[in-house]
Design goal:
Strand order of the largest sheet: 5-4-3-6-7-9-8
CATH superfamily: Vaccinia Virus protein VP39
Strand content: 15-25%
CATH class: Alpha Beta
Distance between the termini: 36 Å
Structural class: alpha/beta
CATH architecture: 3-Layer(aba) Sandwich
CATH topology: Rossmann fold
Radius of gyration: 17 Å
Shape: globular
Helix content: 40-55%
Oligomer: single chain
Order of helices and strands: EEHHHEHEHEEHEHHHEE
Length: 248
């Protein structure tokens, strides 16, 4: 059980400083195969989920997006491809950013539309009321203090700015839970060993999903830091959920 000075790393209880170090280690090890493993683990569904995020955001050419835990660039590239103006892509892990930068070079996306920030989602290196939209896809559950990260999102968004968080959540059909648990705990770590070459990293990722708040609890956390018009949509029956809110 976590105490005031501790937190969870998957199903382990660790110190808060240790969690940040351990999470960085996970993504250092999986960075090069991260995109491939996303396709394999989700059977390609993550692409549709990210497309749903961009569709709900409705990018405009005047919009400046901050994509937190943006890693290899999936959300940022989709935003620009859908007509968005500019992206600041932030990730705490240099290895993930290196993969994203290489993808940007290959796609011909320059710094005038996409800038890269190595930083902490719990202490954003941006000014208050400086961005039009904030997105985070499958990143918040890896942060030590989710409430602090949400508070930072609220701080950097302009009044009327949009928050969209895509994260794994809870199944809406309880009868499917045994099948989902079997796939999560038996198949995904094995795929991590065979394809990602790191079983332990993917064991952690599965466990971290179970530790993250469900749809209603996460909505309450977003509301608690001052966002308005908070809502969510289930994706794939609650395997993932897309949360939306507005800064006021």
């Amino acid at each position: 059980m976590a105490t005031a000075g501790s937190t969870h790393f998957g199903f382990q209880t660790v110190t808060r400083d240790d969690k940040a170090r351990l999470v960085r280690g996970v993504f250092d090890r999986v960075a090069r195969r991260y995109d491939l493993m996303n396709d394999v683990m989700s059977l390609g569904l993550h692409r549709a989920w990210k497309a749903a995020l961009i569709d709900w955001l409705r990018p405009r050419d005047t919009m400046h997006l901050l994509d937190v835990a943006g890693g290899t660039g999936d959300i940022g590239f989709r935003f620009l491809g859908a007509g968005g103006g500019r992206v600041s892509l932030l990730d705490i892990n240099p290895s993930m950013l290196a993969v994203g930068r290489l993808r940007a070079v290959r796609a011909g996306i320059g710094p005038e539309r996409l800038d890269w920030l190595c930083g902490d989602g719990e202490a954003l290196p941006l000014g208050s009321s400086s961005v039009d939209a904030y997105t985070c896809a499958f990143g918040l559950r890896n942060m030590t203090d989710v409430a602090a990260a949400l508070g930072e999102a609220r701080r950097v968004l302009k009044p009327g700015g949009r928050l969209l968080v895509l994260e794994f959540s809870r199944l809406a059909v309880a009868n499917l839970a045994p099948l989902y648990d079997a796939y999560s705990f038996r198949v995904i770590p094995q795929l991590g060993a065979l394809i990602g070459r790191d079983r332990a990293a993917y064991q952690y990722l599965v466990e971290s999903i179970r530790r993250f708040p469900d749809q209603d609890r996460f909505q309450a956390m977003i509301e608690a830091v001052g966002f308005a018009r908070v809502s969510w949509r289930n994706l794939a029956g609650g395997v993932a959920a897309l949360h939306s809110a507005w800064a006021v």
